[in-house]
Design goal:
Radius of gyration: 25 Å
Structural class: alpha+beta
Distance between the termini: 33 Å
Oligomer: single chain
Number of strands: 23
Length: 384
């Protein structure tokens, strides 16, 4: 439904030097899908969205919406913004302060070509307001709405034109934590109910995991990985993705040998690391002698009180700090001279100075490529 091919956008900095804010970005969004561009500030995700909308003009690449090419500079195609058939929700909502709720939504239809009949405008505006639970506030001044209500109003205004594509640029970032959680559910409900193709931009990893059908992680203007939320979280493609999303322990190592596949398990690798030899069944299947980086999520580690350390991927650690988080207890440990973070059931009882037993499931040990390992010289526990 949306196809973005090799799009690049260059800006000139204050020192006159040029830099690529978007650098050869390619992805596609299927009809009815909610696709998220996720990454830190300055990674190029909002610039990519604005290029799709026509608010920024890329130097190269092609963009197609619903089978129609709307941008292709090599072929001198650049469809104006108002003809690209999308709805957009901005981070600031962009509510018209001199209009009431009804008129804010109706305005989107009054500037459409052609303008629908008055009766149709009234019906479509009322339908849009009911969908976002603002029907009872149609006559209220827009500036008298709460932050969450203004966000819903902006969404109703984007949906009332029944666009082929919905673009959302960090629409929840101005809301408090609880309201943001509520609106995530509301957005997902509406998107699924209307089956509207959506491109969502956020720096919030949890928001992306909760909302998305597909996520594209971006950094330095480039797409680092595209996949489902589960794939992105459990099978990161490189160190940046693993570090940006969630908490991760990074363990440098070198491949020792290959463990052949069996009927019960895929091929794996044994890796020599500072905390011992680990079997790893996921990620990069590198050859003997290859430097690699093992990534392990804290919640994937099995924690128990000290006992036998026999068994695959089993180590003993010393407790250095415990943090109760309600749904789990986060335990910062040390294995030899190396920091390692785990998350245990909140009922797990321990104290600083205790020795505990950690078991790292082989299928949860993700091997990352050599370029990721080269910048890490020790075991590292990283929190988002």
């Amino acid at each position: 439904m949306l196809e973005v091919t090799n799009v690049s956008k260059q800006f000139t900095g204050g020192d006159g030097a040029k830099f690529n804010a978007v650098d050869g970005v390619t992805f596609s969004v299927a009809e009815g899908q909610l696709f998220t561009l996720l990454g830190p500030s300055g990674c190029g995700k909002t610039t990519t969205l604005r290029c799709i909308a026509g608010l920024e003009h890329a130097q190269r690449g092609e963009i197609r919406i619903g089978g129609t090419t709307v941008f292709a500079p090599a072929r001198r195609i650049n469809v104006p913004v108002h003809r690209r058939d999308f709805g957009m929700v901005f981070q600031s909502y962009a509510i018209w302060p001199h209009m009431n709720v009804f008129d804010n939504v109706a305005f989107a239809l009054k500037v459409a070509q052609p303008v629908p009949p008055r009766a149709e405008i009234v019906q479509r505006v009322n339908d849009a307001l009911e969908r976002v639970h603002l029907g009872h506030l149609a006559s209220r001044d827009a500036v008298k709405l709460s932050g969450g209500q203004q966000q819903r109003l902006a969404l109703a205004r984007a949906l009332v034109r029944r666009p082929k594509l919905l673009l959302l640029d960090e629409p929840l970032s101005n809301l408090d934590a609880k309201l943001r959680e509520d609106m995530r559910s509301e957005l997902k409900r509406l998107q699924q109910e209307l089956n509207i193709t959506s491109l969502y931009v956020t720096h919030d990893q949890f928001e992306a995991l909760a909302l998305s059908d597909v996520i594209a992680v971006m950094n330095d203007g480039k797409v680092q990985q595209i996949g489902s939320p589960k794939e992105i979280y459990e099978r990161p493609a490189n160190r940046f993705v693993a570090k940006f999303i969630g908490s991760t322990n990074f363990i440098p190592g070198k491949v020792l040998d290959r463990i052949p596949a069996t009927a019960d398990a895929p091929a794996a690798r044994r890796v020599e690391t500072p905390i011992g030899i680990l079997s790893c069944m996921a990620g990069t299947l590198a050859e003997r002698g290859t430097p690699v980086l093992v990534a392990m999520r804290p919640e994937h580690v099995s924690v128990s009180h000290a006992g036998s350390v026999e068994g695959e991927n089993t180590v003993v650690a010393r407790v250095e700090r415990l943090t109760y988080l309600g749904e789990c207890t986060e335990i910062e440990t040390r294995i030899g001279g190396h920091a390692f973070k785990v998350r245990a059931h909140p009922d797990f009882v321990s104290k600083v100075g205790d020795t505990i037993r950690l078991q790292l499931p082989a299928h949860r040990c993700v091997l990352l490529p050599e370029d990721a390992a080269s910048s890490t010289k020790r075991v590292e526990a990283v929190s988002a």
